[in-house]
Structures are given as structure tokens and as C-alpha cells.
Design a protein that fits this description.
It is a single chain. The chain is mainly alpha-helical. The chain folds into two domains: 45 residues, no CATH class; 34 residues, no CATH class. 61% of the residues lie in helices and 10% in strands. It has a two-stranded antiparallel ribbon with strand order 1-2. A hairpin with a 2-residue loop joins strand 1 and strand 2. It is globular, with a radius of gyration of 15 Å. The model has no long low-confidence stretch (mean pLDDT 80).
Length: 89
């Protein structure tokens, strides 16, 4: 599994928020993929969540944390965007 350096840094940063002794980001992703089954390979180097609801939850949590609520408000006026964003909102 190839992990982009930026992705690895992001995972390391987020893990430090909950775990003082940071696990290896590659090992963390491997466990999520192979043990929990939360991620599946869509193609080489591209993974997706097995359950859309988890992706939607994580998206909404990031929007709230980064104060980007206007992004969601803007989608209310775009019917194509609203189809995807409805559950997140």
C-alpha cells in the first residue's frame, strides 16, 4: 500500500491528538484496511470507505471543526450537490 507523504503526515498529526505515543501511520492504515475492514481498495493506491455513513460522519465532523459551515449552506442552492451532501448536512 503506497501512502502519500501528505496523507501520512495528516494521519500522524490526527493520531497525536488521541494517542501520545504515535503509531506508524502506514501500520494504522493497514490495520484499518485488513483488520477492521473500514477501507477497501478501489484500485492501486486508491481506497474508499466501506460504509458511506462513516465517510459522511467524518466529513461533517471536519466541516464543523474547521468552521466551514458555509460550504454546506451553499449546497442547499445546488440540487446536484445537495444529493451528495444531504446526509452530511
Amino acid at each position: 500500500m503506497m501512502v502519500d507523504d501528505a496523507v501520512e503526515d495528516l494521519i500522524r498529526h490526527r493520531l497525536r491528538l488521541v494517542i501520545k505515543d504515535v503509531a506508524n501511520p502506514r501500520r494504522f492504515l493497514k490495520q484499518i484496511r485488513e483488520v477492521s475492514g473500514l477501507l477497501v481498495a478501489k484500485e492501486e493506491g486508491l481506497y474508499e470507505f466501506v460504509h458511506l455513513s462513516l465517510q459522511e460522519y467524518l466529513t461533517s465532523a471536519e466541516i464543523r471543526e474547521s468552521s466551514q459551515e458555509q460550504l454546506l449552506i451553499d449546497t442547499l442552492h445546488d440540487s446536484e450537490q445537495l444529493l451528495w451532501w444531504a446526509r452530511v448536512i
